[in-house]
Write a structure and sequence with these properties.
The protein is an alpha/beta fold and 379 residues long. 39% of the residues lie in helices and 16% in strands. β2 (53-57), α3 (67-73) and β3 (78-82) form a beta-alpha-beta unit.
């Protein structure tokens, strides 16, 4: 067992750039914190520039994702983190001020309708012409005013990640989302604490025609399954590092997960496999949106967007996290054997043949949220 990290040691390592994201989140978890708002350099050391506040998923604050911005301005913007998009939206609606955030396509319209977003000026995006054409027109990207509100950046899958040495052979022979509802693994299962994720999964399991707009009869069946699942879960997670740690230790047998967990655990030599379930695998596309109440220098906001859209950044994302990047030229910088290993050697076909998460109608979403919260609370 490693000794606890003292506060001064934590701060010194953070500012010196010697604390990786896993250690960072372990320290936060040890004191009961899930989200933070920290500049990546001390505030007193910053100059007079009005840097953006980037409201992000944890793990995307790494300098490698915005090196062009650092090269131009000598420092990083400020970052604050969220664990799920509904949480992020409600925090901003309550007055939290940000300049840039990172929603996925199924949330963009909801954020826009809530008055949180302002249009993106595509003419100021240096790499816009290199973005996959099919990612530019995804549902939710363009508003009723014909303007663009979304800059696609990363895309990947949501599926089951499981320990091949701990599951019964039947799941090795025929992979299925049903493993997350299997009583044999009670107390050793995890799922993402998200209405979109949970309802998407249970909809596939019960064979709903549209998991994101289930009929009353389908929703009744889904409710029975979700109540059963609650009793089997080790936890609902908001930080994927919990999945990685749980699978590495054997605390978890299987969990809902994203591609990056596969990459990280295989680096550690953990015997895991990412499912291609018989019911189908989901693809998501996330990207950047401009927040309406932002106060940062607009030139710096677009400098940040241009930095994260660079092909070198995309290559880093592909290699390190196993996700796809929106810049077509990023794939040219990654060895073909690595792309094949990650399953993205043909990104065009992958994108065009995907089963995407769909945006949930606001009235349906409220129904889903109410049901999900009741289930989590044990009602």
């Amino acid at each position: 067992m490693t000794k606890p990290m003292e506060t001064n040691e934590f701060v010194d390592k953070l500012y010196a750039g010697k604390l990786d994201r896993r250690a960072f989140h372990r320290v936060l978890a040890s004191v009961g914190l899930a989200t933070v708002a920290l500049p990546l350099v001390p505030q007193w050391a910053r100059g007079a520039l009005n840097h953006p506040m980037v409201f992000e998923w944890s793990g995307y604050e790494l300098p490698e994702f915005h090196q062009g911005y650092i090269d131009k301005h000598g420092e990083s913007p400020t970052f604050s983190f969220f664990g799920e998009e509904e949480e992020a939206m409600q925090k901003m609606r309550a007055g939290f001020q940000a300049d840039i955030s990172h929603p996925c396509t199924y949330s963009t319209r909801r954020w826009r309708d809530a008055g949180l977003l302002k249009p993106v000026d595509n003419s100021r995006l240096e790499h816009w012409d290199d973005v996959f054409a099919s990612l530019k027109t995804l549902a939710g990207s363009v508003g009723p005013d014909g303007k663009n509100y979304f800059v696609p950046w990363d895309w990947g899958n949501s599926s089951v990640l499981y320990r091949t040495d701990l599951v019964d052979p039947e799941y090795l022979e025929e992979e299925s989302w049903m493993i997350l509802f299997d009583e044999r693994y009670k107390g050793r299962l995890g799922i993402y604490d998200s209405v979109d994720g949970v309802m998407g999964v249970v909809g596939l399991v019960i064979g709903a025609e549209n998991p994101f707009n289930m009929t009353d009869e389908e929703l009744e069946r889904a409710t029975v399954m979700l109540r059963k699942q609650r009793e089997l879960l080790r936890y609902y997670w908001t930080d994927q590092s919990a999945v990685e740690q749980g699978l590495a230790s054997g605390e978890l047998v299987a969990s809902y997960a994203w591609n990056s967990a596969v990459v990280n655990l295989k680096k550690e030599g953990i015997p895991v496999k990412y499912m291609n379930p018989k019911e189908g695998i989901y693809t998501w596309v996330c990207g950047f949106a401009l927040i309406a109440n932002g106060t940062a220098d607009e030139d710096l906001v677009y400098d940040y967007l241009n930095a994260v859209m660079a092909p070198e950044v995309g290559a880093f994302l592909i290699n390190e996290y196993g996700y796809g990047h929106s810049n077509t030229k990023a794939f040219e910088l990654v060895p073909e054997e690595r792309l094949a290993e990650l399953g993205v050697s043909d990104p065009v076909s992958h994108i065009e043949g995907s089963k995407y998460f769909e945006e949930i109608d606001p009235a349906v979403r409220e129904k889903y949220i109410t049901l999900f919260e009741e289930i989590k609370a044990g009602f």
